[in-house]
Design a protein that fits this description.
The chain has 9 helices and 7 strands; from the N terminus they run ααββαβααβαβαβαβα. By secondary structure, the protein is of the alpha/beta class. The protein folds into 2 domains: 47 residues, no CATH class; 166 residues, Glycerol-3-phosphate (1)-acyltransferase. Strands 1-7-6-2-5-3-4 form a 7-stranded mixed beta sheet, with helices on both faces. α1 packs across α2 and α6 packs parallel to α7. The radius of gyration is 18 Å and the shape is globular. The protein starts with a helix and ends in a 5-residue tail after the last helix.
């Protein structure tokens, strides 16, 4: 019985590995990360039926993704839509959540101390951009819940663009089943839509103009 059980488990692992590698589109530098990348794409595209208007990120070089935040599914949707590895700025209390910290580490997430100024995280993100990586963040901070006042954009995205000179790519997510919730949105099947917009040169603007332009695409308050 034990041998049969182990054989079944091994077979499942092999099948998932092959499926993940076949669906993988971004090279994360390790087979484990690439398998997870492929499985997340299958999960978002087949189970959640994600649709996009075509994400036009640069093939190489730094970029900042700024997206509205309506559910716990949002990071997975961004992973599934982009053909390059992206690294999130994430609240430290979420980064250290039991059971998922390994996943955040594997994805190269950068924890942000939301009780302070978060300058350390901004500097770490700026270094990653200098290395040509893509940084993603939700400038609203927390999840926006339906019927609640819209969260205003935080200035961290402007500060990061100003420090690095990297272009900011606005994204907007809508139509998520279970929007406003972290866990419910992950397992409730819907028809999420992700729309990307042309890049913004926030480094060449004052912070008010940058946030106002971003807010228009993200459909949130800006000041």
């Amino acid at each position: 019985m034990l041998f049969a059980f182990l054989l079944i488990i091994l077979s499942i692992v092999i099948v998932l590995t092959l499926l993940g590698l076949r669906a993988n589109e971004a090279d994360w530098g390790s087979i484990h990360s690439n398998v997870l990348d492929g499985l997340l794409r299958l999960y978002c595209r087949r189970y959640h039926r994600l649709t996009t208007n075509g994400v036009d990120l640069p093939e190489k070089g730094p970029a900042i993704i700024a997206c509205n935040h309506i559910s716990g599914l949002d990071p997975f949707l961004l992973f599934a839509a982009c053909k390059r590895p992206i690294h999130f700025l994430i609240a430290e209390n979420q980064y250290r959540r039991f059971g998922v910290q390994w996943l955040f580490k594997l994805a190269g997430c950068i924890p942000v101390d939301t009780t302070g100024r978060g300058d350390g995280a901004i500097r770490a993100a700026a270094r990653a951009l200098e290395e040509g990586q893509i940084i993603a963040l939700f400038p609203q901070g927390g999840i926006h819940r339906e019927h609640a006042p819209r969260n205003k954009l935080k200035r961290g995205v402007y500060k990061l663009a100003e420090m690095s000179g990297a272009p900011v790519y606005p994204f907007h997510i809508s139509n998520v089943k279970g929007a406003g919730h972290v866990v419910k949105s992950v397992y409730q099947r819907g028809y999420p839509v992700l729309v990307s917009f042309p890049p913004i040169d926030c480094g060449g603007m004052d912070h008010h103009s940058c946030l106002k332009t971003l807010a228009r695409h993200l459909k949130v308050a800006h000041v």
